[in-house]
Amino acid sequence: MATKIIREPIHIEALAELLRGRKLPITITWVAGASRSGQQNRLSHRWYSDISRQLGDQTVEEVRGECKLRFGVPILRRDNLDFMATYDRVLKPIGYSEKLAAIISFDLPVTRLLTVKQMTEYMDSVQREYTQQGVRLTDPDAMKYEQEFGAPALHLVHGDGQ
What we know:
Layout: H1 9-20, H2 38-55, H3 60-79, H4 81-90, H5 96-105, H6 116-132, E1 137-138, H7 140-149, E2 155-156
Antiparallel strand pairs: 1-2
């Protein structure tokens, strides 16, 4: 399925031109918002590593899968009726550990379906949960400096930056 993000009026014209060249009939679906940002993606993966390393009881992929299941799935079930229908039919009836195994084994799309706004909500939930457990998560602002200067990013002890 092709995806186009429309950010400016000129993008609408480009999409119209693309559609004019397609054989009919076609089906078009859209959602409000944009896909998650690259910065959010890099930060979420850094946080999975932070959590895995500091808690020591799960691999990075297990942390990633658990976060997707605990925080991402509820957001998508709430906001995406197609996702909810499929999830409820296929995964909801099985136990938690089987759901987690499926998400990890098949790399089921959860966070990659989130908009920027939804990904912000997801990241806020991950941050809240794991900082309460004492995990020091990479500070998003520090990552900007890391990218610019190549220095390791600082970590947050609490969600409020203290």
